[in-house]
Amino acid sequence: HLTMQDIADEFDKSRPLLHYHYDTKEELMLAFVDNMIGWVGGQLAQSDTEEPLDRMEAYIDGFVIDPGEEDRETFALALLELRVQAVHNDEFRSRLSRHYENNVGTVADIIADGIEAEVFREVDPDEVGEFVYTSLVGARMYQVTMGAQHASRRARDALAEFVVDDLLVDGRTTGEYTGRSW
């Protein structure tokens, strides 16, 4: 059970300062949710290229947690714990739903751009985007909760082989994934 004191212990300022800004633990946690999901969404949407296939690769790779990446595992567990709060709390659910929709939208935008650039074939970007996002989140959560160290990497490789390859227009393939490029 998380308390304001637990949070203050991790905070580099004092507990009274936390209480000055946030009347309740819930207000503090909601501010944390807003901060965290804003940062995560920004990181996942960020790309150094406009090329749709490269953007898709970067997005999908952002979910991979390799063995030994303890900070990323801890972060993924924190997101999972926030999702658990959404089951019982409408405010958490509302904020996390927006995060979900934004991430699906990011993938859908990549797919739509790929269709327009004639890199991807005609599909429903929202449906495929939702499938890609939920597959990645599910694999990552399985990895960090069940100790399946390679689940996110395997999901990433399966998405490249079975989804992204299928999205590409005739004559293009992702090839065998080497960890550096499609």
Helix/strand-derived class? Answer: mainly alpha
| Quantity of strands, as a count | 0
The overall pLDDT average reads 83
Distance between the termini: 44 Å
CATH superfamily: Tetracycline Repressor, domain 2
Gyration radius, rounded:
19 Å
Q: How is the biggest beta sheet arranged?
A: none
Number of domains: 1
What is the architecture at the second tier of CATH? Orthogonal Bundle
Low-confidence stretches: none
CATH topology, which one? Tetracycline Repressor, domain 2
Order of helices and strands: HHHHHHHH
- Quickly count the helices: 8
How would you describe the overall organization of this protein?
The chain is mainly α and 182 residues long. It has a single domain, classed as Tetracycline Repressor, domain 2 (Orthogonal Bundle). The protein is 71% helix and 0% strand. The chain has helices spanning 4-10, 15-21, 25-45, 52-61, 70-88, 90-116, 125-146, 151-167.
Structural topology:
Blueprint lengths: L3 H7 L4 H7 L3 H21 L6 H10 L8 H19 L1 H27 L8 H22 L4 H17 L15
